[in-house]
Design goal:
This protein is α/β, with parallel strands linked by helices. It folds into two domains: about 230 residues, Rossmann fold; about 80 residues, ACT domain (Alpha-Beta Plaits). It is about 35% helix and about 30% strand. The two termini are about 35 Å apart. Pfam families: ABC_tran (PF00005), NIL (PF09383).
Amino acid sequence: MIEISGLRKTYRSRKRSVVAVDGVDLHVGEGEVFGVLGQSGAGKSTLLRCVNMLERPDAGTVAVGGLELTNLRRERLRVARHGIGMIHQHFALLSSRTVAGNVAFALEVTGAPRAERKARVAELLELVGLSERADAYPAQLSGGQKQRVGIARALAARPKVLLSDEATSALDPETTESILRLLLDLNRRLGLTILLITHEMTVVKRICTSAAVMRDGRFVESGTVAGLLRQPGSELARDLFPLDTSASVATAGGGVTIVDITVSGDEADEPIIADLARRFASDVRILSGSVETLAATRAGRWRLALPGAPEDNSEALEYLRKRGVTL
């Protein structure tokens, strides 16, 4: 649904140049929820704005739904953007318009007739749970309600792709959870493809099927969440399941092997550690870890202490690898 190849964007001033996006490749499949994770200045927002050509890249190509946007002239690009909705961190609502008026504005831009606009606005407000607030103004809404208006407005022209620019970072945790539930529901009910940028690991953990970690304008890793969890040394796996290292320091040495293991899918609910202890008559200790349900899979990560030096545990470690465990 979204295909990006060799994308590069540089901002230039008199004194210096800043490369915001540096040769990024990205594939987001139809119906996928893809999260780009990174800190401020990583290039996430520029990447997102290049997808709908709010920023013109210096090099590379962007295609959405099979249509390459990079070289489209203004009028054709304006029409193509109707198929791409966008929601913003700070809502970007028109304060002088009601909830219904804000949603209708997106349809006015497309030239939809009045009767069609009225019916579509009612449908959208029902979809996001705001039918009773149709006549309210943005100043009368909570942050979560404002974001629901933003989502309804983004969906007005029936786009197949939704871009989310830090949509939950201005919200409290409870409201964030409600917005993420709504996005996941829209993804499933409408077959909506969602590309979101965030610095919040909770967002990736809750709704993303695939993700990329971005730093200094580049992807340092990218793939399905399940695949990245099984990738040795994955930053995403480490940050999704941070392990307490304090017990490791006290346990290290003295002929003890410290090992971190990651499992996903059906294996996450299997008694792997118990099997390990029985099979090798080993007094395995769990130092830290957890099992959680992600958007697309069950996953678990633990730090274990096995008695004996690493060479004494070679068979046990090989057994874990054969079970599909990532060490």
